[in-house]
UniProtKB/TrEMBL annotation:
This is non-specific serine/threonine protein kinase. Pfam families: LRR_1, LRR_8, Pkinase. It comes from Zea mays (Maize). Its EC number is 2.7.11.1. InterPro entries: Kinase-like_dom_sf (IPR011009), Leu-rich_rpt (IPR001611), Leu-rich_rpt_typical-subtyp (IPR003591), LRR_dom_sf (IPR032675), Plant_LRR-RLKs (IPR050647), Prot_kinase_dom (IPR000719), Protein_kinase_ATP_BS (IPR017441), Ser/Thr_kinase_AS (IPR008271). The chain crosses the membrane at residues 600-629. CDD domains: STKc_IRAK (cd14066). It catalyses: L-threonyl-[protein] + ATP = O-phospho-L-threonyl-[protein] + ADP + H(+); L-seryl-[protein] + ATP = O-phospho-L-seryl-[protein] + ADP + H(+). It is an enzyme of class 2 (transferase).
């Protein structure tokens, strides 16, 4: 064993008639397992685990017929590459006590014939692809001590017959699909020491009979659907060391009997609906090391869980605990993480916490704590995160915080701290977030903070800071958010702030005493989304460069002393953004009046002359256009109408995106010019909702324009539902969603339709990479690394639409041509929600019966969930189905309509049949363009297909949510990259 032997298992070993043990484990043997080995008359140990054996487990390994019987007692074949089903012939190994087939690629059901192995003590089948229900015969194995079936696809109920396994010590069923209630008969398995049912769908209550399991050490029911109260009888399991009931729907109180669990080490009840106090008796549970009771409704004191001096982590976030933070925490010198946020705790932070030198995380935010920083915390030199926000803490912020070398986040906001910001904080070179807002801090902003090169967030708002912004702030090159609002800062805004090129979320200098001009250089902050300079004493004109900030979503320059004319490009912001500036005029404010000043009169005169000249030019153009139209063939009239509808009466440039990521004004004629009147040479894609064109505008910006050709233009202009829908879509922001920049339409061309303007994705669509673009030619082969990255990005985009977007959005048309790739090959899902807007407009155009003709139907053939055939209603679960098809597309390289599937099979059934087939047939499911595959790639692709098959289950309720899909693909990605690192 463990000699790195290679090659096949020699068949000549079958001639060793007197051998008792063959142990070749931990080598690199390959090929098939010779069945002849099982017939050696005196062989009791056959151990070939941890090799690279392939093929099926021989059905005649234990003899060819019922008359024959093998002498093997220990058959260990785990950690190989065996495929196919578990052969029923193994039941002829009547002497077997141990059967190990874990960590292979076995499929099918567990054979009922295994129930004939009456001497079996260990049945280890975990980490395969076994499916179906547990055969009743399995519970005839009354000598069984270990039953390990975890990480398979087993389903159904756990039968009452489980109680017959009176010798069972270890029962591992986690990460399967078991349902139903846990049977009361489990309490008859009096020898049980380990029970792990994590990640199934067991429901109902915890059986009271489990109190009979006096030898139980480990109990994990996490991530199921258990409800009701926790059975008090569990307190009788006094050997219990690990109790994990988290992520269920349990209610009621923690049983008083838990005070008897004196051996308890890990106590996990988070994410339930538990209420009431912690039993006082639990103070005697002095072996507890990890406690997580977060996100419940528990109340009272935390003291009963602090009788131990062995704590390593403690999390009671989001409950209703009151009273003081127990000083007893300080007895646990190894305590690393304390989370007590969002409770009703009061009193000071106990000085005893300073004795916990191992402490790395302290979060006591959103309580009613008072007092100041205990000086003893200076001894906690491993602290990396300190969050004390939303309390009533007071006093000065201590200098010694600067001596915490690992400090990464310091959040003290919404307290009553006073005094100056300690310059010593500049020593915290790892600091990422510094939030001191909403306190009573005074003095100046220390120039020394400019040395914090890693800082992402600096929030000093709502304090009493004075003086100027130090020029060293420009050195914070990693800054993402800067908020200095609601202070007494003065002087000019430093132009060097424009060097903060990573600023994105916010630059807020409002409600201070800043004077001077707005630096034009602020316009170079190309990522900034929110700029607020309101309520200051700024003077002069508004720099035109601000209007060119394409990323800017929010702008507020109100309540200053600004003056001059605002160009039309500022019209994309509301009047409130410029209000209370007496000298400002122009779009979107009132027109500039001649009564304002001599310069205003001059400007008005210039504007009048310009208007007259423009009117004359327009009249000439109209005359020339009419003459040109008369000379042209009738078939060209529509295109010319679109191209030249530039007058105010003939062109409508609708900016429907109110809070989009990059609001701009797009003109119909500018787009028509950039695309040569929507010429085919600029077309980069097409679909059911319209054609997409690449448009390089005169500004140098490249955008993607989708023309929705079969929608009525006039109706678009007045369709409130369409307007509302597009406004909603424009507000959606996520790194894996394509940004909708605006919408334009032409009023003159009645059937001309509207155009949606999107950010341009330079690497085209996933469809182009897998199947070829409009020219029929594929790009270079997309590697598995890139495809896995696309899969994860797609899932994250859909997750955002379904779970985090307000309101939630159903995409309705997920397909590979709607998955677009940017310059870094990151996936961006496009056209989200568009199908609904198009459908509603078509309903208005065609009437209520449009669904009968299919003209209102959303989705693309091959990607549509089966239930849509009869309901015609798209849901989040139908989106998940479509996403599953795209995942299959990524692995197989095939379209869902590929002729490979034939007329009687679709992609889902084809993939399922190949996944259930022996190894050579299974390999057909992988894109040939990716072969030869490394083992880590093949394993990762198989896992993605398993996720895809879950997404495409026929019953919508059995499909995972988009969030679950995203989590599953994240784990697949992590496993894959870890495997890559081990190469």
């Amino acid at each position: 064993m463990n000699n790195r032997l290679t090659g096949r298992v020699p068949r000549t070993l079958a001639a060793l008639s007197r051998v008792h043990t063959i142990d070749l484990s931990g080598n690199m043997l390959s090929g098939a397992l010779p069945a002849e080995l099982g017939r050696l008359p005196q062989l009791t140990f056959l151990v070939l685990s941890d090799n690279q054996l392939t093929g099926s487990v021989p059905g005649d390994l234990c003899g060819g017929d019922e008359a024959e019987s093998s002498s093997i007692e220990h058959l260990m074949l785990s950690m190989n590459n065996f495929t196919g089903e578990i052969p029923e012939g193994l039941s002829r190994c009547r002497a077997l006590t141990q059967l190990g087939l874990a960590n292979n690629s076995l499929s099918g059901v567990i054979p009922a014939a295994l129930g004939e192995l009456g001497n079996l003590t260990d049945l280890v089948l975990n980490n395969n692809s076994l499916s179906g229900e547990l055969p009743p015969e399995l519970f005839n194995l009354t000598e069984l001590q270990t039953l390990a079936l975890y990480h398979n696809k087993l389903s159904g109920r756990l039968p009452d017959a489980i109680g017959r396994l009176v010798n069972l010590e270890e029962l591992y069923l986690y990460e399967n699909q078991f349902t139903g209630e846990i049977p009361e008969s489990i309490g008859d398995c009096a020898s049980l020491q380990m029970i792990d049912f994590f990640g199934n769908r067991f429901n109902g209550s915890i059986p009271a009979s489990m109190g009979n399991l006096s030898q139980l050490i480990f109990l994990d029911f996490r991530q199921n659907e258990l409800s009701g109260v926790i059975a008090p009888e569990l307190g009788e399991c006094q050997q219990l060391k690990i109790l994990d009931l988290a992520d269920n729907a349990l209610s009621g109180s923690i049983p008083e009997t838990f005070g008897k669990l004196r051996s308890l080490e890990q106590f996990m009840l988070y994410n339930n609906s538990l209420s009431g106090a912690i039993p006082d008796g639990m103070f005697e549970c002095r072996n507890i090391t990890r406690v997580n009771i977060a996100h419940n409704r528990l109340s009272g004191s935390l003291l009963p869980l602090c009788g131990t001096a062995r704590l390593l982590s403690f999390d009671a976030t989001n409950n209703s605990f009151d009273g003081a933070i127990p000083a007893q925490f300080g007895r646990s010198s190894g305590l690393q993480r304390v989370r007590l946020g969002s409770n009703m705790l009061s009193g000071p932070i106990p000085p005893s916490l300073g004795g916990i030198t191992a402490l790395t995380l302290l979060d006591v935010s959103s309580n009613a704590l008072t007092g100041g920083f205990p000086a003893t915390l200076a001894q906690c030199t491993n602290l990396s995160l300190v969050v004390l926000s939303h309390n009533r803490l007071s006093g000065a912020i201590p200098d010694w915080l600067g001596s915490l070398p690992q400090l990464g986040e310091l959040t003290l906001s919404n307290n009553e701290f006073t005094g100056a910001i300690p310059v010593q904080l500049s020593n915290c070179s790892n600091l990422l977030k510094l939030s001191l807002d909403n306190n009573q801090i005074n003095g100046t902003v220390p120039p020394e903070l400019g040395s914090l090169a890693s800082l992402n967030v600096l929030n000093l708002a709502h304090n009493q800071l004075s003086g100027q912004i130090p020029t060293t702030v420009a050195k914070l090159s990693s800054l993402y958010e800067l908020n200095l609002s609601q202070n007494y800062l003065s002087g000019p805004i430093p132009p060097d702030i424009s060097k903060l090129q990573e600023l994105q979320s916010l630059l807020d200098l409002s409600s201070n005493n800043f004077s001077g001009h707005i630096p034009a250089s602020l316009g170079s902050l190309s990522k900034l989304e929110d700029l607020n300079l309101s309520h200051n004493a700024l003077v002069g004109a508004v720099p035109s460069q601000l209007a060119g900030m394409s990323s800017l979503v929010q702008l507020d320059l109100s309540s200053n002393q600004l003056e001059g004319r605002l160009g039309i490009e500022f019209g994309r912001w509301p009047q409130a953004a410029f209000a209370n500036n007496a000298g400002l005029c122009g779009s979107p404010l009132r027109g500039c009046s001649s009564r304002n000043s001599r310069s205003a009169f001059h400007a008005a005169s210039v504007a009048l002359v310009t208007a007259v000249v423009t009117l004359l030019i327009v009249l000439v153009i109209i005359v020339l256009a009419l003459m040109a139209v008369r000379r042209q063939a009738p078939g060209s009239e529509e295109m010319n109408c679109s191209a030249f509808s530039s007058s105010s009466s003939g062109s409508a440039n609708r900016q429907l995106v109110i809070k989009g990521s990059a609001r701009r004004e797009f003109r119909w004629e500018a787009i028509m010019e950039a695309t040569a009147n929507l010429s085919d040479q600029f077309a980069i894609g097409s679909g059911g909702s319209g054609t997409v064109y690449r448009a390089e505008l005169s500004t140098g910006e490249t955008v993607a324009v989708k023309r929705i050709a079969d929608m009525d233009s006039g109706m678009l202009l007045h369709d409130k539902s369409f307007t509302r829908e597009v406004k909603t879509l424009g507000r959606v922001r996520h790194r894996h969603l394509v940004k909708l920049l605006g919408f334009v339409t032409s009023r003159e061309c009645g059937g001309g339709g509207g155009m949606l303007v999107y950010e341009y994705m330079e690497n085209g669509s996933l469809y182009d990479w897998l199947h070829g673009g409009s020219d029929g030619r594929k790009k270079q082969t997309l590697s598995w690394d890139a495809r896995l990255k696309v899969a994860a990005g797609l899932a994250q985009g859909v997750e955002y639409l379904h779970h985090d977007c307000v309101p939630r959005i159903v995409h309705r048309d997920i397909k590979s041509s709607n998955v677009l790739l940017d310059g870094d090959m990151e996936a961006h899902l496009g056209d989200f929600g568009l199908a609904k807007a198009v459908r509603e407009n078509r309903q208005a155009a065609f009437g209520k019966d449009c669904t009968e003709s299919g003209s209102c139907f959303a989705g693309s053939y091959g990607y549509i969930a089966p239930e849509c055939a009869y309901s015609l209603k798209a849901t989040e679960r139908s989106d998940v189905y479509s996403m599953g098809i795209v995942l299959m597309e990524l692995v197989t390289g095939l379209l869902p309509t590929d002729k490979t599937f034939g007329g009687d099979m679709d992609m889902v059934r084809w993939v399922q049949s190949r996944m259930d087939a022996p190894l050579p047939a299974r390999e057909q499911v992988f894109d040939p363009a990716l072969k030869p595959l490394a083992p880590r790639e093949e394993s990762s692709m198989t896992e993605v297909l398993e996720v895809a098959l879950r997404c495409t289950r026929a019953a919508p309720g059995e499909r995972p949510t988009a969030r679950q899909v995203s989590d599953l693909l994240l784990h697949v990605s992590l496993d894959y990259y870890r495997a890559c690192e081990k190469r």
